[in-house]
């Protein structure tokens, strides 16, 4: 590990860099975790919006519950060090989820 502070990434606004410089190590780790989760959320939102824009008719999977639309995709969520499958789809401005089951580590 280097004894000099890291160089902020190019394009990161100066006011954000200044605020981060004032954070404690714990708060920096919380902010990093939040930023990663936010990036994943936005990527998922973009993917779901892109899927909404396609007008392909798809066959309904056999394991798809009746209250989940065919446009739903399967997402894996990590909760308390466990991984679970969720059906996820866009409903207007919201993203809806429905539990599917645990991820089988053998798959």
Automatic annotation (TrEMBL):
Name of this protein: DUF6788 domain-containing protein
Residue ranges, annotated region (Disordered): 40-74
UniProt keyword DNA damage present: no
Acidic residues bias locations: 51-66
InterPro entries: DUF6788
Keyword terms of this UniProt record: Plasmid
Pfam family, one: DUF6788
Compositionally biased intervals (Basic and acidic residues): 40-50
Signal peptide range: none
Domain DUF6788, residue spans: 50-106
